Task: structure prediction
Amino acid sequence: MRITLIYVGSTSDKFYLEAACEYEKRIGAFGDFKSVCIKEERLENESSQALIEKALSLEEQRIKAAIPKGSAVVCMCIEGKELSSEGLAKYIDDCGGKGISSICFIIGSSHGISQSLKAVSSLKLSMSQMTFPHMLARVMLTEQIYRAFTIINGKNYHK
Amino acid sequence: MRITLIYVGSTSDKFYLEAACEYEKRIGAFGDFKSVCIKEERLENESSQALIEKALSLEEQRIKAAIPKGSAVVCMCIEGKELSSEGLAKYIDDCGGKGISSICFIIGSSHGISQSLKAVSSLKLSMSQMTFPHMLARVMLTEQIYRAFTIINGKNYHK
Result:
């Protein structure tokens, strides 16, 4: 299984980078993992809804260009479906069972992901009803993908 | 408001320590925050339910000794109530309104928190239906407490 994680906006927080790297390295034992950073559109704090949507639309174009062909697309959003760790493992395993060999997870900017991209995704996924900084969400999701592979492969990690 | 975060078991992962420290420092601008590490009972991977319960009971004694008197106790557990970030802010703010000046959050070991401690808590709180390593849960919770204070104080952080 090939997993791609596309996230919008970089971070200067070293601890997030190191934590994400650690789980990316571990996922490598189970599958082909790649993370792709997409440039975030700059917005003022009090931007209008129209400006926010324009920024999301520009980010959508860059995200779409980075999605590997034939991927099942999973958009991370707070209104998405909440799955347990076992539920995410089942989703990934089921994709494999259907002959899908590439899954692409997308974490948007602090303003989220465009409605049109969410509309065409295979799954809208929520990790929490709480709002987390998107770089912490990246660490959380990378850990969950690693955890999913340990569940699928019966490894001693998940409790 | 005085906030205490009791967590069971330490970590050698530097990135988790650094991330938790960063949010602890930021919370300091709003209230008195203290985190307390409780020794985790060692258990083999295939321990019986009886041995797990004994360990949880020993950890409970240490946790109880560390809870500041008069605190509202919040136990983190996957079956708890899911709140949004605004919901957690409201809970903290409401405690203040009721004259409660100390809230104590508890993150158990990888086996969780004893049933008897959960039974006497003011709130059982879940951040996700997913299972996270407890040191990542500590970072997530510390960030949410910081976020709650920025919401209560109308600061420009939460989106």
The two ends of chain B are 23 Å apart (CA to CA). The helical segments of chain B are 14-27, 49-66, 85-97, 115-119, 134-152. DSSP finds five helices and five strands in chain B.
